[in-house]
Amino acid sequence: MTIPFSDRISDVPRSFIREILKVAIDPQIISFAGGLPNRNFFPVEALQNASNKVFETAGREALQYANSEGDLILREMIASRYKEKKGLDIKVDNILITSGSQQGLDLMGKILLNDGDGVVIEEPGYLGAIQAFSVYRASFHPVPISEEGMDTERLQSILQQKKPRILYTVPNFQNPSGITYSEAGRDALAAVLERSDTLLIEDDPYGELRFTGKDKTSFAKRLPDQTVMLGSFSKIVAPGLRIGWIVAPDLIMEKLIVAKQASDLHTQYLGQLIIRQFLQDNDLDGHISTITDVYNQQRLAMIRGVEQYFPEGVQFTRPEGGMFLWMTLPSDLSAMSLFHRAIDKKVAFVPGDPFYASRKHVSTLRLNFSCVDKAGIDTGMARLGGAVREAMEQR
Amino acid sequence: MTIPFSDRISDVPRSFIREILKVAIDPQIISFAGGLPNRNFFPVEALQNASNKVFETAGREALQYANSEGDLILREMIASRYKEKKGLDIKVDNILITSGSQQGLDLMGKILLNDGDGVVIEEPGYLGAIQAFSVYRASFHPVPISEEGMDTERLQSILQQKKPRILYTVPNFQNPSGITYSEAGRDALAAVLERSDTLLIEDDPYGELRFTGKDKTSFAKRLPDQTVMLGSFSKIVAPGLRIGWIVAPDLIMEKLIVAKQASDLHTQYLGQLIIRQFLQDNDLDGHISTITDVYNQQRLAMIRGVEQYFPEGVQFTRPEGGMFLWMTLPSDLSAMSLFHRAIDKKVAFVPGDPFYASRKHVSTLRLNFSCVDKAGIDTGMARLGGAVREAMEQR
């Protein structure tokens, strides 16, 4: 038989990162290519204790089917944390627990996008969002970002001409660039977006991983009826539990719940209860500061590595938090060809290409600093700096 | 702002069952309305032990991001079980772990259905499948089923006229009817489907819950290149873990993995490892026979209840396994109006209406026997029989 696949699945890019990382499995390779939190700092023992408590006090509930919205008490805890950390008043009914925030993206695409509908994405932008919205046949409108935020002039013209349905942003310690929008940049974006029919999705997986500087205010403060927030425990507790959430206004939430039911009935309940018990019995802020101390040390080691081992003409971001540093090579150097040279020297990174909706052979690249210790970062950056130097000498 | 939702989400029926069950939360009500496995027989202690072993031997792996296909060893175990129980040779690469088999339905819809594409469903049929495929704007073509299987004459004419993309069947102890297709019925369906471009989805969540009779052979034996199988640990271990799987031919699997990545990256890894450890350390067959012994006792109590308390003119299926018994009232009695009368008498069931793609005010209903003990079933059936009797006297 011939299998006629849907048009939507033909449009989805296969994970480029996943493909290129297959060459990086050599254990000799120091990898800055990953996008993972550092597993050495997962609170394994505390989660095991939480798991045991759940099995002992609510084992049968944890193992039974559960409601689609997610555990009520866990949602209350998320709401309280929004109040405490961001001064936001979120009702429990406006929170839906998702199977990671990747599912938040899938559900938003599902309920909002018809074929060809416009989605504004950041350039460079998060690949998982591009994948999720591609499934619903989005037309992507990339807008360049800088340390201030989005290019609002470009945005304005897209809003007028294309009437996009969604604007997707990761305004804190963005993946891949490490960029955090300034308050002024947020104000400017909100002013442009206000009174349009474009919904803003604020994805904030890294926001709590701040090393220096002051927290910036959420778009939900500026555009409360027009903002959907995605959150996740993946970077602050552990990703393998796949517990994320969506905060959305009433009308949107109603559709999200229908879509959630149809997609997987509900998020794994044992994992929800483990996280809830973990939050009850442990100091999440203390745990986060353990992680951020380590990540910050590693970030500083990476910055020192660039300064020490890299030739002139290489630029990079100095992120105030998160897991990534973004590097811009001289414009005639392709990050993709540097990648192969770097692999020969036993160091890996992600070339910028997959983070652009259309551009290829870019001269930007992403460096992850969460997973390699300081000594490894020093060695790896010396190797990578050498590879850049060679590439520049041989042009 | 106005929120323009996608066309697809407007088409999805909200869960009718969920809505009507809101009236059945009174603890005095004996409920045959649920569709849940009996939580009293979840292997809580064994799963807690498995969880502890996972935390102790592979805690950091279990909590980290994992691959989209699912745990390799768990997939090997699933493949071995297919070999042992059904004589099927399944390669590990043709198995994808999903977040419950509801996600299997969502992924199949995602990769196969364009707007308006045809899906053959059983009548009555499983509501979760109707919901999942509605999201992808399927046109449903219901085909009546009986103890033999599908009405193949009707099916043939649909295949010719509508060229449906998918045929969806639950051939063992179907939800809602409890029906199991005969071998002859399976042969007939396969003969009609062969050489068409319609893919058969064999969803088999209840197949291992057999009380009497002999296992029937899978469609995968008859139409190996044209059959996708969905499986789940929900009914044989525990649903709260949300671990299901899809078995699909290579070309389909390739697309499924792309869709899985875009949907939620991967199924919760801790849960996969807990199930794997549970399977390694415990006798699943022994556990299943504990469950089936109880369910069978309850099924027999329910059948005795019908015989004892119900008036002439009420028909019902005698399922050889699973969790449901299907009842047909005299054709001028509406199950929906009986529902309200039954609630007054403190007994609940699911009227047949939601299990039909279009028909309403049907005279069929679904009775679940997995969750109420024998004494409760006797009392509940006496109440329900009384309600039926009254309804018949008052017509």
TrEMBL record, chains A, B:
GO molecular function, one term: transaminase activity
Keywords, comma-separated and alphabetical: Aminotransferase, Pyridoxal phosphate, Transferase
A Pfam family annotated for this UniProt entry: Aminotran_1_2
InterPro entries attached to this UniProt entry: Aminotransferase_I/II_large, Class-I_PLP-dep_aminotransf, PyrdxlP-dep_Trfase, PyrdxlP-dep_Trfase_major, PyrdxlP-dep_Trfase_small
Signal peptide: none
Requisite cofactors: pyridoxal 5'-phosphate
Domain Aminotransferase class I/classII large: 43-384
Keyword Transferase: yes
PANTHER family per the UniProt record, alphabetical: AMINOTRANSFERASE, KYNURENINE_ALPHA-AMINOADIPATE AMINOTRANSFERASE, MITOCHONDRIAL
Stated name of the protein: PLP-dependent aminotransferase family protein
Source species of the chain: Desulfobotulus pelophilus
